[in-house]
């Protein structure tokens, strides 16, 4: 069936949609932290409630990532992404209602939408641009980091200019713009969707649970995410306790994020050109050990170690994200692997900062938490080396469901194909 979008227009539209989707996958999370003090006063939140509010988005990324492949199979990838943007928009707008219930519900809704977009983005790249996996994954990683940094940096100026409502609601604008692009793609996806009777090959999330390579990628992504979110949460406190001024300690987090932005583009490009990505994993391990060891042994040189950690964290997550596509032989498996890896990864990352905080309170210092992070580099690099070996994920097949031999798995199930 012909659609309203010609082939060249569809490819361009998909690329624009991919860029706009990426811009919306961090701003709603990072834009709220700088105005937490005012939100606490306006909503009358307790310290525990503030802690829940800051942890909810990361937990939502893990919890809702598991259902993204199912939505993509049932509705189609483009329709699922359009739905995720609707959720992000509604969640952002709900948070400006002066009610604690709306604040928390909006945060969950926006986090759920971001989780769906996170998981489905690799599948979009794999299906629509299979020859440009490295460059487009790099572009999305770079834009994701940059949009998160911009949202965090503009939060306080927007708050001072128009109040906390403006600081939160402004990020509904890019999500609405992205929805205007994904709407036609969703309509096209519905028109080109296979008949319901089309048999499906077993490429879902459950079949990946028996694949060792899928678990290697998932654990590597989880530990890379944990390192990033622990440092994002506690680096200012570590630096203040090391003798740095509060303003300088706060700027160190921004410096760490900025240092990783260029690597968000470069690492996926290099990874896609290499048959074996293990040298990149080794480089990540060296930088993480150097940065964490430096904080532990010579915290007075904090700026040096922060930049080194920026290189490490800025390389690890983009590399793990690129492996989602490099280890997947088809877009459907890329979506399933992405859902599996991000579910475990973000749940682990969500509890990481809490565990480090408890350990700090129990020991009265940062030496033991930093030693723990150094120890965790060992399994991170081991699973990373296993995940980076050449090869593909091999999902377990279900004997009771047999796909017709003349129709390959990738063409019988996926509801959307870029033209």
Explain the overall architecture:
With 419 residues, the protein is mainly α. The chain has a single domain (7-387), classed as Up-down Bundle (Growth Hormone, Chain: A). 78% of the residues lie in helices and 0% in strands. Helix 5 crosses helix 6 (77-94), helix 6 packs antiparallel against helix 10 (172-191) and helix 7 (100-128) packs across helix 15. The radius of gyration is 21 Å and the shape is globular. It starts with 6 loop residues before the first helix and ends in a 6-residue tail after the last helix. The relative contact order is 0.16.
List the helices and strands and how they pair.
Layout (H helix, E strand, L loop, with lengths): L6 H17 L3 H4 L5 H8 L3 H19 L2 H8 L1 H18 L5 H29 L4 H30 L1 H6 L2 H20 L13 H4 L3 H30 L4 H28 L4 H20 L4 H25 L4 H33 L3 H21 L21 H5 L6
Distance between the termini: 12 Å
Instruction: Tell me the name of the CATH class.
Output: Mainly Alpha
Instruction: Report the average pLDDT across residues.
Output: 82
- CATH architecture name: Up-down Bundle
Notable features of this structure?
18 helices, Growth Hormone, Chain: A, 419 residues, single chain, disordered C terminus, mainly alpha
Quick overview:
The chain is mostly helical and 419 residues long. Helix content is 78%, strand content 0%.
